[in-house]
């Protein structure tokens, strides 16, 4: 096979090595625009897991790479005059130049044709190639030249960074957070060579990346700085940290990180690998790893399919794309943390450090128990003290409980733990009356250990229902039925009960969920209302644009329902402002096209929801009041996270105690960015920037996630939906897994000394 690799970085070189090892008869040429010793950057980072992968593929290059490693276990975080350290992280640094030399030499041993100083702008000279590999990095000519096939998207991130080297050693991976009168400066620093090898790496042994917001960068005058001026500025700014050591430039210009994704990784006989196909922010240190694993999987797919590219390319992409997407999500979470670090600068050092270490979601509370149990105990002990202070309840600290089993107080309402069962529509009521299904559904989950149980969206009038099966709070019978459920929960568990009141708006008069989500009724429909006369689907009923009389009537419906909720004994009341329902249709510019004082600016669009919230607060004066919001619409021109912060700020000013932070579902054409804990960053931001308590929801399924979210300060409560549907006793089972004693109700007291047999093999039963 005649193979041409466009790009001689780690990805292109390693792919050439693997293909030559598989079949020495392959004719492989690597084309690199730079010279052998000409490379951007200083060091690269590998994890222990990465090295295990490389050892299996080419032991010779693996041995040479590991011989040049500088390894460390610790992370040091310099914050507000303290150094917080965590160990057990298992990474290694290596000079990028040394890595390239090792791979180049290995290619020469295998008789790969290496050509340097070759700029590619035409593939005609390589028309005889059977396979062309696009390994030409972030600025890939191949990706852009064939853009209509690869479908690239490049998102330039707002922060600025510069990649420098230094002669200072860093025994640990080191973060500095240094504020001055221009803003906050972040430093990511790590060592990649021993001091004795300094001459081999441009007289530097460590990478020193400086990152800053655009505003601070411009305020410092660095938008017009040369490389030399940047070096002098940073040496002066970080003189104390550098301790007399120099900073070194290597094409060290200020950049914005490009997050690159592609719709397809192959076209004809061309396949993309590494940064040509996808990028991951430098704060997760995985760019080189991603590139080399791409090379492994592409080579494996080609060899397993006997060189048949029509089968090999889809197999390669099917194998690598999910893993790359997962890592990009982690990198995005990490990148977002550094882009918004200013919001965390008021947090206590212990929580700041935990938040930083777990920022990408790759390291969790439970991971740290294995890596650094001493550090984690310190985090849990700190969190227990904070919980005791916040709740007014004594919380043990030796040993401390897991964060999810600490108390939390909202006004006079005390929750025994931080797990809440999310509002989940059941579509099983008769004219709004909850029945035995709702009693068992909510009662079982309260007995299952959750600290707070929410009703489904409970509609304030018959016309406010989503479907004929939706629960309501608009008839006397509703108060009686709900009181039965509330009394059962209060009588048989320590759980508290919240009611979520809502109005379906333009998403009303639809079928039961299992008959067609959001689809209009075929018969028996009723008139619906919205901010503007825009149907949800083109074939949906057109809602009436609300007038003043409609608004007054709906406000009265909410006031009546709130009073009935008090009569039924609910502990907390939440108003549904999200998911495209009535109030969300006012809040989102996608669904509010009004020209009066209820349309236009965000302040105007919030006018009606806040008017209702104020009226509800009048009849719900002392108990906690919550609001569920959609933090982002996931459609251009819709609500964005900046808007959500302002919405939460208005809610706080109007007496809201806690915000339930959801997202999307406003319009059917939304494109949510799903993933683990995908909505938690919105909760995190609102909590820190507004100073209001938050509930996180959205693909939170494990106690590791819950403990991590809470200890990092990303939310005060975690709402569990499908996890608690799947397992009504989820909270109790998590207590068992964590070794935390959660007392059972008296009728179940025989379970106190019961040991479940979970996942045992047949011979062990």
Which spans of ≥5 residues are poorly predicted at pLDDT below 50?
none
Can you tell me the overall shape? globular
In whole angstroms, the N-to-C terminal distance is 55 Å
Query: What is the percent of helical residues?
Result: 25-40%
Characteristics of this structure?
765 residues, TIM Barrel, eight-stranded mixed sheet, single chain, globular, FAD/NAD(P)-binding domain, 29 strands, alpha/beta, 37% helix
Please describe what this structure looks like.
- The chain is α/β, with parallel strands linked by helices and 765 residues long.
- The protein folds into two domains: 2-337, FAD/NAD(P)-binding domain (3-Layer(bba) Sandwich); 402-753, Aldolase class I (TIM Barrel), CATH 3.20.20.
- The strands form six sheets. Strands 5, 6, 10, 11, 12, 13, 14 and 15 form an eight-stranded mixed beta sheet that branches. The protein has an eight-stranded parallel beta barrel with strand order 20-21-22-25-26-27-28-29, surrounded by six helices. A six-stranded mixed beta sheet has the order 8-2-1-9-17-16, with helices on one face.
- The relative contact order is 0.08.
Please write out the topology.
Blueprint: E1 2-6, H1 10-22, E2 27-32, E3 43-47, H2 48-57, H3 59-67, E4 70-72, E5 75-79, E6 82-86, E7 91-95, H4 96-109, E8 113-116, E9 131-134, H5 141-145, H6 147-150, E10 152-166, E11 173-180, E12 183-191, E13 206-212, H7 214-219, H8 227-237, H9 239-242, E14 247-248, E15 255-262, E16 266-267, E17 270-272, H10 287-304, H11 309-339, H12 349-357, H13 365-371, H14 373-391, E18 408-410, E19 413-415, E20 419-421, H15 436-447, E21 452-459, H16 476-492, E22 496-502, H17 513-516, E23 529-530, E24 544-545, H18 548-568, E25 572-576, H19 582-587, H20 602-605, H21 607-619, E26 625-630, H22 641-653, E27 658-662, H23 680-690, E28 693-696, H24 703-712, E29 717-720, H25 722-726, H26 730-738
Parallel strand pairs: 1-2, 1-9, 2-8, 5-11, 9-17, 20-21, 20-29, 21-22, 22-25, 23-24, 25-26, 26-27, 27-28, 28-29
Antiparallel strand pairs: 3-7, 4-7, 5-6, 10-13, 10-14, 10-15, 11-12, 12-13, 16-17, 18-19
């Amino acid at each position: 096979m005649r193979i041409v690799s466009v790009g001689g970085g780690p990805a292109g070189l390693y792919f050439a090595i693997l293909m030559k090892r598989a079949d020495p008869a392959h004719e492989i040429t690597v084309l690199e625009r730079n010279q052998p010793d000409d490379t951007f950057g200083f060091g690269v980072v590998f994890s222990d897991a990465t090295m295990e992968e490389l050892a299996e593929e080419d032991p010779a290059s693996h041995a040479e790479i590991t011989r040049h490693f500088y390894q460390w276990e610790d992370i040091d975080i310099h914050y507000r005059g303290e150094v917080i350290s965590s160990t057990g992280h298992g990474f290694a640094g290596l000079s990028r130049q040394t890595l390239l030399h090792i791979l180049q030499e290995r290619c020469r041993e295998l008789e790969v044709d290496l050509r340097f100083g070759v700029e590619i702008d035409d593939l005609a000279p390589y028309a005889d190639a059977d396979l062309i590999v696009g390994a030409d990095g972030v600025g890939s000519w191949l990706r852009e030249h064939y853009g209509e096939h690869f479908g690239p998207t490049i998102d330039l991130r707002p922060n600025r960074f510069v990649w420098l080297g230094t002669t200072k050693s860093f025994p640990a991976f080191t973060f500095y957070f240094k504020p001055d009168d221009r803003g906050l400066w972040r430093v990511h620093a790590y060592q990649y060579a021993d001091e004795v090898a300094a001459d081999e790496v441009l007289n530097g042994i460590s990478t020193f990346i400086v990152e800053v917001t655009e505003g601070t960068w411009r305020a410092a005058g660095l938008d017009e700085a040369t490389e030399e001026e940047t070096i002098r500025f940073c040496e002066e700014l970080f003189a104390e940290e550098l301790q007399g050591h120099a900073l070194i430039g290597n094409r060290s210009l200020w950049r914005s990180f490009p997050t690159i994704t592609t719709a397809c990784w192959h076209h004809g006989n061309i396949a993309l690998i590494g940064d040509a196909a996808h990028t991951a922010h430098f704060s997760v240190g995985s760019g080189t790893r991603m590139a080399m694993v791409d090379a492994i999987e592409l080579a494996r797919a080609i060899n397993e399919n006997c060189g048949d590219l029509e089968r090999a390319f889809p197999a390669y992409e099917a194998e690598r794309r999910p893993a790359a997407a997962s890592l990009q999500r982690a990198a995005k979470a990490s990148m977002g943390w550094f882009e918004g670090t200013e919001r965390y600068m008021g947090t206590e050092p212990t929580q700041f450090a935990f938040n930083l270490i777990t920022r990408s979601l790759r390291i969790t509370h439970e991971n740290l128990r294995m890596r650094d149990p001493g550090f984690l105990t310190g985090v849990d002990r700190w969190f227990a003290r904070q919980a005791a202070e916040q709740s007014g309840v004594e919380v043990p600290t030796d040993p401390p409980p897991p964060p999810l089993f600490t108390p939390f107080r909202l006004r006079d309402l005390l929750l025994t733990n931080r797990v809440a069962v999310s509002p989940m529509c059941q579509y099983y009521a008769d004219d709004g009356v909850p029945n035995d299904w709702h009693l068992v559904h909510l009662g079982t989950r309260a007995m299952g250990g959750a600290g707070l149980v929410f009703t489904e969206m409970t509609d304030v009038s018959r016309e406010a229902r989503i479907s004929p099966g939706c629960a309501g709070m608009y008839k006397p019978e509703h108060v009686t039925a709900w009181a039965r459920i509330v009394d059962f929960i209060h009588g048989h568990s320590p759980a508290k009960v919240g009611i979520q009141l809502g109005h379906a708006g333009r998403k009303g008069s639809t079928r039961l969920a299992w008959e067609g989500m959001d689809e209009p009724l075929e018969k028996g429909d009723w008139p619906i209302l919205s901010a503007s006369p825009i149907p949800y689907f083109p074939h949906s009923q057109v809602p009436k644009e609300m007038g003043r009389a409609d608004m007054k009537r709906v406000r009265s419906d909410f006031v009546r329902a709130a009073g009935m909720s008090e009569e039924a004994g609910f502990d907390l009341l939440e108003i549904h402002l999200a998911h495209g329902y009535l109030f969300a249709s006012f809040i989102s510019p996608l669904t509010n096209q009004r020209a009066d004082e209820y349309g236009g600016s965000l302040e105007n669009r919030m006018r009606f929801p806040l008017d209702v919230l104020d009226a509800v607060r009048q009849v719900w004066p002392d108990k906690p009041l919550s609001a569920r919001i959609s933090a982002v619409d996931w459609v251009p021109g819709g609500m964005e996270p900046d808007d959500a912060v302002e919405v939460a700020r208005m809610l706080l000013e109007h007496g809201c105690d806690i915000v339930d932070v959801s997202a999307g579902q406003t319009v059917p054409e939304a494109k949510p960015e799903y993933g683990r804990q995908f909505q938690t960053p919105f909760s995190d931001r609102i909590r820190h920037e507004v100073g209001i308590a938050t509930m996180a929801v959205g693909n939170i399924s494990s106690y590791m996630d819950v403990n991590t979210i809470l200890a990092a300060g990303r939310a005060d409560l975690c709402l569990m939906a499908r996890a608690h549907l799947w397992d009504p006793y989820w909270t109790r089972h998590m207590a068992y897994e964590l070794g935390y004693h959660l007392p059972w109700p008296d009728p179940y007291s025989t379970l106190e000394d019961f040991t479940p047999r979970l996942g045992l093999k047949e011979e062990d039963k």
